[in-house]
Structures are given as structure tokens and as C-alpha cells.
Design a protein that fits this description.
3 domains, 2 strands, globular
Length: about 550
């Protein structure tokens, strides 16, 4: 197979893997939210949000640097992977020990299941990072179909384990309080005297049998899933190169020197995306986290879209900048912005209209707003957060432009500014407005990133953005939104929530038709999705 075809195949498998994992993540979300209470799912979410900070510190950008170094010289793959395995194992053991020690010292988590859950979930993080280390070999050798298959097998294993716990090992049973039992006992005592039929307890809900043990088993499900994933990856990577721990002092120092700046950027990015959930758990309670986390899981499924698109555009953008093709570069930036805007606006309009049924489909009725009771649910969180997501779609264009211009340090400072603003904003607003305030701060943080990224990108390259196509896209999206708004009650009447499976594709077809009709998108814009390959003896054929 030619190099060009290998690259294309590798990219396709990565896309398949990402979208498959996003779809499977919805299943885990559905099981966990239906099985656990809002507070229980909050504890479940906090466990992984807490560990996210430590896991990214354990990585420190070593995965990316390992791929780069192995791609330069494939004869050194065994040596490089051996040293990276040593470094990452040292880092992950140290950071996980710190995580376990830290979580037991946080007063807010005292009396909750979070400390024990974190202790168990550290094994899941260990296997994830180990898998990531050896997966770098597959990336360098353009065999990411193996990694994608391993991830899918691991995720399915986790889902099956969770389903076993929820539906067989620890099924949910009625909530029977002492007051209910006393009332039933008194009623049945009278029934004995009058020979009336016995009554059953009038219960208000269901909880898992042995709720604590069941909760911890859901955490163990993640450990088992990641273990299986790692074993599958290990089996195939061993066929490509020997795997053994190595320590070359000079090589390790060189790898760490290269990975440190990128690692810091990853840490800042993780803090930016995760700190709001942690602060919610510390300032408010786990119920707030549970509501917020459901919306965040939905956004995570959407967030892969701009990265996939811009990763396809980056090689073309970088080459045009390197060759000093100013007009072509301006066109690429303009079309990229239009494309991101065209993707983000209908998603925003659709979410504002369909947030309520969407949240019900991926979770349970407990997470839905009951405004007559003053209860704000995950649907409200999703509607607010989607504004931030669309803004991030746009800022991704300018972040990648800075990357193509080799201005990574500016990206670092932009992320740092957003992290500081996000933390201060959350500390000020969460005590008063809870997750709604945190979601609003996410919008402001996304705006800050957009403003700074545009400012720095324009400083180094004078691009031009037209408002003609975005205006057409907004009008098209509003027409689509109106159709969805009027058809949703009708579809619900006949198909209930399953009607969304018809409504969403129908809305997408209408929106795309309007874009083509108004010429908001062109053939030249769509060509950006095709990755240009440099001519080589292999791909000239």
C-alpha cells in the first residue's frame, strides 16, 4: 500500500474510532444516569473529573513526542517506546499516588463515595495511559485500525459489565422507609382482624440493592474495560516491536525537554475544560455536578468535529504559508471560518429547540428541568454550554492558524489567560448561581479565547473574513429551527422521543439544501476536506 493510502486509511480509522467511542459513551451515560440518582451520578462524574488533572500530568505530552521521534527513525522504535514506557509509568504511579492521597484530604468529599471511587479508578487511568504509550507505535506505523478496534472492544466490555451490575447483580428495588413500613404494618394488622386484603408498600422510587457496592462496581467496570483494551493493544504491538522497559538517561532527558512545553499546554487545556466541575463539587454539591456533567458528556461528543476538520486543513494551510501563497492562505482561512460557522450555528439552533428530549434520550427524567418546582436540569445546562461550544468552533480556526504560523507560545498564553479567567469567574459566580453560572462563565471564557486568538493570528497574518456566507447560514439555520420547533410536537405524538431519529436528519437535509440554494457553501470550500499530499514516487501513480 502506498504511503498516501496508508495515511488516508489511518485517518479514516481514527475517525471511525472517535465517533464509535462517542456513540458508545452515550450508552455508558444512559446506564449510569438511569441507574444512579442525580447526586450519585455527580459522585461518579467527579471521580473522573478529579483524576483528569493527574492523568494529564502523567502524560506530559509524551505520547505526541513519542510518535514524532519514532516517525523520524523507525529503527529506533523499540528503544524510544521502551524509554517512554519507563517515563510514563514513573509519572503515572507518582501522580496516581498523589491523587489518592489528595482526595482523602478534601473535607468536602468526606462522607461521600468519591475517595474510594478515586482509589479504584486510578487503575483505570493507569491502563489508559499504558495503552496510550504503546498505541504510539501504531500511530507511527500507520496502523491505527488496531488501536480503534482495541478501544471499541474495551468500551463494549465496560458497557456489558455496567449492564450486568444494573440489571442483574444489583437491580434497583423500591425505596421503603421506616415510616412506610410502619404504616403498612399497622394497615396489615387491621387487615388480619377484619380479614381484608393485605396492602403493599406505597413507594416513591427505586434505588440499587447494596447501593455503595453497586456504585463501586460501576467504577470497576471502567477498570476492566481499560484493562481489556490495553491487553488487546499489547498483543498486536508485540508483533510489530519488542516491548520492554528501558532507561537511557540521555534519550530520556531529550524526550522530556521536547515534551515539557506541550505537556504544560495540555495541563492548561485540561484545567480549562474540567475545573468548573471540580469547583462545583467543592462549592455546591454533587447534584449540581451530576446535572452539569450530563450536558458536558453530550458536548464532548460534538467537540471532535472542529478538530477533525482542522486537522485535515492544517497540512494544506501550513504548506501555503510556507510557500508564501498569501491569497491561497486567505482563502483557506475564510473557507475554514465559514465551514465552522456553518456547522456550529445549526447545532446551536437545534440544541436550543431539542435540548429537553435530547437529554431524556441520553439520561433519564431525573435530569430534566422542572421549572414549576424551581429545578433547573441538564437541558438548561446544555442550552447555555452550546453557545460556548459554537464559539470554540470558531476559535479553533485561529488556533490552528497560529499553529501553522509556528506561534505555539501564543497558544500557551491564550490558554493560560482563559484558565485564570475561568477559575476566578467560577469562584465568584458558582456560590450564587451554581452550574448555570459556571456554564455562563464557559461562554465568556470561550469568547476570551476567540478574541485573543483572532488578535494574535491577525497580528502575524492579515486574513479577511466575509460576513456574507455567515448571514446566509444564520437565516438557513433559523428556518430549519422553525421547522423543528413546529414538527417536534407532531413527531412526539406519533413516535415519542424516537421521532428525533426522523426529525434531526430531516432538519439536516433542509439546512444543507438551503445552504446550496443560497450558495453559502461552494465546491471550493468542500475541497478543503480533501487532504493534499505532496507528490512522491509512491503517490504519483
Amino acid at each position: 500500500m502506498s504511503t498516501a493510502r496508508k495515511i488516508l486509511s489511518n485517518k479514516i480509522w481514527q475517525i471511525i474510532g472517535r465517533f464509535s467511542m462517542a456513540a458508545l459513551a452515550i450508552f455508558t451515560l444512559k446506564i449510569a444516569t438511569n441507574y444512579l440518582s442525580v447526586k450519585g451520578y455527580g459522585e461518579y462524574a467527579v471521580t473522573y473529573e478529579f483524576l483528569a488533572f493527574f492523568s494529564i500530568a502523567a502524560d506530559m505530552g509524551l505520547f505526541t513526542i513519542a510518535i514524532t521521534e519514532m516517525s523520524k527513525d523507525e529503527t529506533k522504535i523499540s528503544k524510544i517506546i521502551g524509554n517512554v514506557m519507563t517515563l510514563r509509568t514513573i509519572f503515572v504511579v507518582f501522580t496516581m499516588l498523589v491523587a489518592v492521597g489528595s482526595v482523602f484530604l478534601i473535607p468536602k468529599y468526606d462522607g461521600t463515595r468519591i475517595p474510594v471511587a478515586v482509589s479504584i479508578a486510578t487503575l483505570s487511568i493507569f491502563f489508559t495511559i499504558t495503552n496510550g504509550t504503546i498505541t504510539s507505535v501504531l500511530q507511527a506505523k500507520l496502523k491505527m485500525h488496531i488501536a480503534s478496534i482495541a478501544q471499541i472492544i474495551g468500551k463494549i466490555t465496560m458497557i456489558l459489565y455496567m449492564a450486568y451490575i444494573a440489571f442483574y447483580a444489583f437491580p434497583k428495588a423500591p425505596i421503603i422507609t421506616s415510616q412506610i413500613l410502619n404504616n403498612v404494618t399497622q394497615t396489615n394488622a387491621s387487615a388480619i382482624a377484619t380479614q381484608a386484603p393485605f396492602t403493599s408498600p406505597d413507594v416513591s422510587g427505586l434505588v440499587p440493592t447494596s447501593p455503595d457496592l453497586a456504585f463501586y462496581h460501576l467504577i470497576i467496570a471502567g477498570v476492566v474495560g481499560n484493562l481489556i483494551m490495553t491487553l488487546v493493544t499489547y498483543y498486536f504491538v508485540r508483533k510489530i516491536t519488542p516491548l520492554s522497559f528501558q532507561f537511557d538517561k540521555t534519550l530520556c532527558k531529550e524526550i522530556l525537554k521536547k515534551s515539557l512545553p506541550y505537556g504544560i499546554a495540555l495541563i492548561l487545556n485540561t484545567i480549562y475544560f474540567r475545573i468548573d466541575s471540580i469547583l462545583l463539587s467543592l462549592i455546591k454539591d454533587q447534584q449540581e455536578v451530576g446535572i452539569y456533567a450530563v450536558a458536558m458528556r453530550v458536548l464532548e461528543a460534538v467537540s471532535v468535529i472542529p478538530l477533525f476538520f482542522m486537522n485535515s486543513v492544517l497540512p494544506v494551510l501550513t504548506k501555503s504559508i510556507k510557500d508564501n501563497l498569501v491569497e491561497k492562505t486567505k482563502t483557506i482561512i475564510k473557507y475554514s471560518f465559514d465551514f465552522m460557522f456553518g456547522l456550529g450555528v445549526p447545532i446551536l439552533i437545534g440544541t436550543l429547540t431539542l435540548a429537553y428530549p435530547l437529554i431524556y434520550i441520553v439520561s433519564s427524567s431525573e435530569f430534566l428541568s422542572r421549572l414549576n418546582e424551581g429545578f433547573y436540569g441538564s437541558d438548561i445546562a446544555l442550552q447555555i454550554l452550546m453557545f460556548a461550544m459554537v464559539i470554540q468552533f470558531l476559535s479553533t480556526v485561529f488556533m490552528f492558524l497560529l499553529l501553522a504560523l509556528d506561534k505555539q507560545t501564543k497558544i500557551l498564553w491564550i490558554n493560560l489567560s482563559a484558565v485564570i479567567f475561568n477559575i476566578i469567574g467560577n469562584l465568584l459566580i458558582i456560590p450564587y448561581y451554581g452550574f448555570r453560572g459556571s456554564a455562563f462563565i464557559s461562554i465568556l471564557s470561550a469568547l476570551l479565547i476567540l478574541i485573543l486568538s483572532v488578535k494574535y493570528a491577525y497580528k502575524y497574518f492579515k486574513f479577511h473574513i466575509s460576513i456574507s456566507a455567515p448571514i446566509k447560514m444564520v437565516i438557513s439555520a433559523l428556518i430549519m429551527g422553525a421547522l423543528v420547533y413546529f414538527l417536534q410536537p407532531i413527531s412526539y405524538k406519533y413516535f415519542h422521543n424516537a421521532g428525533l431519529l426522523i426529525l434531526i436528519p430531516l432538519a439536516g437535509i433542509l439546512y444543507l439544501s438551503l445552504l446550496l440554494l443560497t450558495k453559502a457553501i461552494t465546491k471550493d470550500m468542500l475541497k478543503l476536506l480533501k487532504k493534499e499530499e505532496a507528490a512522491t514516487p509512491e503517490n504519483q501513480l
